[in-house]
Structure formats: structure tokens, C-alpha cells
Amino acid sequence: MSQTDSPRHLVTRFAPSPTGRLHIGHGYSALQAYDLAKESGGTFLLRIEDTDVTRCRPEFTDGIYEDLRWLGLDWDGLMIQSERFAAYEAALDRLKALGVLYPCFCTRGDIARELAASLHAPHGADGPLYPGTCRHLSETERIERIVRGDPHSWRLDMGDALALTGPLIWHDAIAGDMSVERDALGDLILKGRDRPASYHLAVVVDDAAQGVTDVVRGRDVFPSTHAHRTLQALLDLPVPIYRHHALIVDAEGKRLAKRSAGLSLAELRARGVEGRQLADDLRAGRFPVGISLDAP
Fold this sequence. Notes:
By secondary structure, the chain is α/β, with parallel strands linked by helices. The chain has two domains: 8-83 and 246-296, Rossmann fold; 85-206, Alpha-Beta Complex (Glutamyl-tRNA Synthetase, domain 3). The protein has ten helices and 14 strands. It has helices at residues 24-38, 58-70, 85-98, 108-117, 139-148, 158-165, 199-209, 224-234, 265-270, 275-283, and strands at 11-14, 43-48, 78-80, 101-104, 123-124, 127-128, 153-156, 169-172, 176-179, 189-191, 214-218, 241-245, 248-249, 292-293. The strands form six sheets. Strands 1-2-3 form a three-stranded parallel sheet, with helices on one face. The chain is globular, with a radius of gyration of 20 Å. The protein starts with 10 loop residues before the first strand and ends with a strand.
């Protein structure tokens, strides 16, 4: 077999945020990523996404380790996002130099009021989009407000970004090739007022840093990939293959949350459930009473 014919080495990752205990849905997603890598002799990585310094807790990080090992999963490498703020700042500086970021001084209340007053509020995949209020400020006003010390975040101008990159494609192993849509999520915040990097920026920078070849994650994050592919193009980062799997939902068809009573892995363990047996059941599509996979 020639080198060009050799199978690629798969690198997947599981990247939870330590803002609560993992539930069955997290376990299902971790198993999907783990099995995809291990079935081909690849690498499975763990990343702790703890950039939200106001909500993340060390005890929840410890709980992630405990829950994964209870399911019989171990990892080949570990990354902690709170140790990587300098990498995110460097990426932001590069995007600023490209002219695709702008400061946003709006509060959530400001945005809500503007959307409520608009007869034609822009909508994306997940609902109303940021209306672009601060996108229209003059450069002079932006500088004056920053110098004055007005609190602000930094947003990605998707219009300017795609004008710079041209049309973009990303591939989902389930859905096929997808064209990047400007209004899937609109002008996303990449750095918040009190957060060094948003999920969207950090996940792109870290997938590249960890050499992730295949991103396995829930279908709820599907719209975000339009922005992620755009950032990869702007930052000259490699583009992984995506696999957005179905979500585990409750009896009412709602996706699970960390507050879902009785469905955290810690609660199941306390009730005497055996972790490796649960892992086998989830792999086989055998779910506890009252939960199931959502419809396509």
C-alpha cells in the first residue's frame, strides 16, 4: 500500500463545559466520538471548555473525569481551555487585523428592545439574529467609546468575512456537503465583555491545535459550523470532517439539560447503574424509559 493510499489517522475529541454534571446525552456523544476513533486505531482526546469563568467549577471538571471513566472511557490527551487565553487573544488580533471584527456596546436589553421594535428582525437557524446596531457605528465613534472605557464585546462581521473568503463549503458525514450561510447565526460574539473567548472562537482554535480530524457532536450545534468554517478560512486553519449526531431527548421531545432530574450520570451511578453496561446499552440504542433519540 502506498503512502497516499494509507488510511488517515482519525483524531476525535469530547469537549464538555464544567458547568454541571454530565447527563446521558453527554455520555452518548462521548461514546460516539470515542468509538469512531478507536474502531480505526485513532486518537480520542478530552478538552475541558472552561472559558466561562463565572459558571465553571473545579468540582464539575473532576466530575467529568469520574463520569467518563465510569463509562469505561479513557483519553489519549487533555486540553484545558482556561490555560489557553493567549492563543485566543492572538487569533482575535489576527481577525482584527483582517478588518472583520467590530466592537459591540449593546447589552442584552438593548438588543431585545431593538428586536421587539423591529417589524423585520433578521432571523437565523436558532431564532432572531443580532440586528447589527454597532456594525453601523463610524470608526470615530467606535474609537471614542473604547477610549472612554465603555464595556464592549467583539463581533465577527459575517458579511465582511465572507466577502474576504469567498464561498465556503464544509462536509458533514451524515448530511453531506454544506455551503456556508451568512445568516445561519449572524454576527457572532467572539470575545465577550467578561469572557476571554466565546465558544465559537475557542473551539476552532483548539480543534486545530489538537489536530482534530473529525468533530463528533450533537445536531444542536449544526448551525454553528457555518461560523466555524468561516473562522477556519480566515485563520488559515485545517478543516475537519463533521458528524452531527442525533440528540437524546426526554418523553416530551426536549433535549436534555444539565438540570434534567434523574438523568445525570452521577445520579444513575448512585442508583446502582453499572457504567460499562450503560455504555453498551447506549451504543446499541437501548435507552432508559422516557428518553429516546430525536427524529431527523
